[in-house]
Write a structure and sequence with these properties.
By secondary structure, the protein is mainly beta. The protein contains no helices and eleven strands. A hairpin with a 4-residue loop joins strand 7 and strand 8. The radius of gyration is 13 Å and the shape is globular. The mean pLDDT is 94.
Length: 115
Amino acid sequence: QVQLVESGGGLVQPGGSLRLFCAASGNARSINSMGWYRQAPGKQRELVARITRGGSTLYADFVKDRFTISRDNAKNTVYLQMNSLKPEDTAVFYCKMVVVLNDYWGQGTQVTVSS
């Protein structure tokens, strides 16, 4: 089993920044893809960004040039640097890691962008 623990969410004003963290523990060897998703109230969960073990990245159009995903393979950790946050970015953010062929999800961290 793999456990994911997220942190870094909170309340921020429009235009502000937050950095999310997600660390894996347990049987977390050979993590392939790491990613961040978000789910706003009344909406489906959607991909924000993901990164392969080799460092290739994919971003949703709505976060390009504002968010940056990175990972530390030695620490089994994925990060999401979020800049220029907008009220519409308000959501619960979830990390997901793919270990072998299995998907593991974190518990979610709330991000609220409001003045």
